[in-house]
Write a structure and sequence with these properties.
By secondary structure, the chain is α+β, with helices and mostly antiparallel strands. Helix content is about 30%, strand content about 30%. The chain folds into 3 domains: about 260 residues, YVTN repeat-like/Quinoprotein amine dehydrogenase (Methylamine Dehydrogenase, Chain H), CATH 2.130.10.10; about 50 residues; about 130 residues, Tetratricopeptide repeat domain (Serine Threonine Protein Phosphatase 5, Tetratricopeptide repeat, Alpha Horseshoe). Strand 3 and strand 4 form a beta hairpin.
Length: about 450
């Protein structure tokens, strides 16, 4: 949050000394984080900003505006250098908001697009130089190679298309992305291209060989919209990739604004990544994954070794464990082994993020399903303390714990208190709330007292 309002877009110079921001009210400013000087205001609140970019050396800023214009400023003085409409010459903007603005490294050209088309303008005159038409899929991001010979464009279908800047001829297609391509970065030599998909998967591609090496796997996909169509409509999310000066370290930012650093010279082959994904299906905990990889005789020795190294380096995301746990405990009637597995996943997730409330919540529910009612009460009490007070679903599960332990009056009191609160759930998905209410009412109205195994 800046004093100009909530930030919707952000761009930075390659050395991080300058940062450009666009607020949701349309104001654009350039900041110098190191010295804390007053920002250079490029424009005040006006029409919305659809796309924002900064030159690699921090000298220029460009924005595509909701008013229908593209503008270029001098980042130091704030002086407007060029302005032109989205419709220019024989080229007209395709339907939808513009995306993927980027300067060429020599600063002579600016690229951007909408729909599946990308246009390259003369940066000083706003005259279209060349148009690149990609697959039948929305374009999301563009990047020029350092030598200016290629332009790379990422698409919603997970592909990256390369074109020759000189004559517009296709220069190759990189396929194998696991979702919407949300960020691109060439290394300083231009021989490798890093891509980040909307699910957090990062790959480094050998541009000449068209082969990729997986660096990092992504988080669990949301179950309601697995195609990530929601992300294409939210260009302000802080996705970003950048290489350091010698091209070894790769910094990758995801939608949670967490920046991860990778050694790009020790990437992992696709075969190793696929082996890890397969070994993670039954149990994503690293020890289990490594054991399965060690026992998989179908793998070559080299692939097995690389896969084990990848599993050790990647670990497991607590959100992945949460999703796997909840998929088991959301309904009654599962087997004891599955519920104990869910407890282990929840415990591991909480160990990584002990104050993340939804993880503690899921741990309490998993303990209840596993018949560990006293433990469940203790964890749910802690979860309530993290939230400040028990909510509707906490009370329902706690009521069932009390009933299972023979404390019928406490169970009834907790159920009545739950009924008096709005049926808002901390559990996911929300439609499970009715199922839990029915389960609690059936258990408590029947007066059952079935103590479980207490550990």
């Amino acid at each position: 949050m800046s004093r100009f309002g909530e930030v919707s877009h952000l761009a930075a110079s390659s050395d991080g000394t300058r940062v450009a921001t666009a607020a949701r009210d349309g104001a654009i400013a350039v900041w110098q984080p190191a010295n804390g000087t007053v920002p250079t205001v490029l424009r005040g609140p006006e029409s919305s900003v659809a796309a924002l970019t900064m030159a690699v050396d921090g000298s220029l800023v460009a924005a595509a505006l909701g008013s229908g214009r593209v503008r270029v400023w001098d980042a130091s003085s704030g002086r407007l250098l060029a302005s032109w409409g989205w419709r220019s010459g024989e080229w007209s903007w395709r339907p939808g908001e513009p995306r993927g603005l980027s300067f060429s490294h020599d600063l002579k050209a600016l690229a951007g697009g909408s729909g599946n088309a990308v246009v390259m303008w003369d940066r000083t005159r706003g005259v279209p130089i060349r148009t690149f038409v990609g697959p039948d899929s929305p374009m999301t991001v563009t990047r020029f190679s350092p030598d200016g010979r290629l332009i790379a464009c990422g698409y919603r279908d997970g592909s990256v298309h390369l074109w020759s800047v000189a004559d517009g001829t296709p220069a190759g297609v990189l396929r194998g992305g696991s979702g919407v391509i949300w960020s691109l970065a060439f290394d300083p030599t231009g021989s490798r291209l890093a891509t980040e998909s909307v699910d957090g998967v990062v790959r480094i591609w050998d541009v000449a060989a068209r082969e990729s090496l997986l660096l990092s796997g992504g988080k669990a996909r949301p179950t309601d919209r697995p195609d990530y169509s929601w992300a294409v409509d939210q260009p302000g999310r802080p996705w970003g990739l950048t290489f350091d000066g010698d091209g070894r370290r790769l910094l990758a930012a995801g939608p949670d604004a967490v920046v991860n650093s990778f050694d790009s010279w020790t990437a992992y082959p696709a075969a190793a990544s696929e082996a890890v994904e397969s070994a993670s299906e039954a149990d994503p905990l690293p020890d289990s994954v490594i054991r399965r990889l060690s026992e998989d005789r179908a793998l070559t020795a080299a692939t097995r070794q690389m896969a084990i190294q990848l599993a050790q380096a990647r670990g497991v995301d607590p959100d992945t464990l949460y999703a796997r746990c909840w998929s088991i405990v959301r309904r009654a009637g599962g087997d004891a082994a599955s519920y104990e597995q869910a407890v282990r996943w929840a415990e591991a997730a909480v160990a990584m993020a002990p104050v993340k409330r939804e993880l503690v919540d899921a741990h309490g529910v998993a303990l209840y399903r596993a018949g560990r009612y006293r433990d469940s009460l203790a964890v749910l009490t802690r979860a309530a303390a993290l939230r400040g007070t028990p909510d509707w679903m906490h009370l329902l599960v706690m009521a069932m714990c009390h009933q299972r332990l023979g404390a019928n009056q406490q169970a009834q009191a907790a159920l009545e208190r739950a009924r008096s609160l709005p049926p808002f759930s901390w559990l996911h998905p929300a439609e499970d709330t009715d199922v839990w209410l029915q389960e609690a009412e059936a258990l408590i109205s029947g007066g059952a007292a079935q103590p479980g195994v207490q550990r």
